[in-house]
Amino acid sequence: MSPSHCHRLLAVALVCVLLLWRPAAAAEYPVGDGINGWDTGTNYASWAQSRSFVPGDVLVFEYVKRQHNVYQVTEAAYRTCDPSATGSVLATYDTGFDKVPLPEAKSYWFICEISGHCMGGMKLAVNVSAGSPGGGAPAPDAPPSPSAGATYRSSWVASAAGLVVLGALHVLVN
What we know:
- By secondary structure, the chain is of the alpha+beta class.
- The protein has a domain at 29-124: Immunoglobulin-like.
- Helix content is 28%, strand content 20%.
- It contains 4 helices and 7 strands; from the N terminus they run αβαββαββββα.
- A 4-stranded antiparallel beta sheet has the order 4-3-6-7. It has a 3-stranded mixed beta sheet with strand order 1-2-5, with no helix packed on it.
- The termini are close together.
- Keywords: Glycoprotein, Metal-binding, Signal.
């Protein structure tokens, strides 16, 4: 194999690796994992506990539009299931397919405002940590989430593919 052919092959392999490789990115989390979605039959404290949220992640609330809604509320409104106090509602969603970004490392609280739903368990507390030890405080009524290492944010598949391509090139060149 001529040196110029090897260089071209190496350049193509490098471009392929760079196209496959992606840095860690924000994740989308279907609330309730899409099994039941946002409804009265899911334990949202357990659901949130089994995930690690970082700034940039997005919660996806899927539900029957006329049966539920999503209110982002203050901690007090979350605890009492009463969003009637002035300033207790931070945002409202009611499309049935709401994508809610989590831009900062802090606690976020969500409830369904339909009568009886929040008291029936339709409330979600999410702690978004900065991704480093000593990040944000855990959300009330929600145990701390697992470490960021437990998430699927790595691009190990692309890295492994790149190593295989480079290894094959090494064999071809030698």
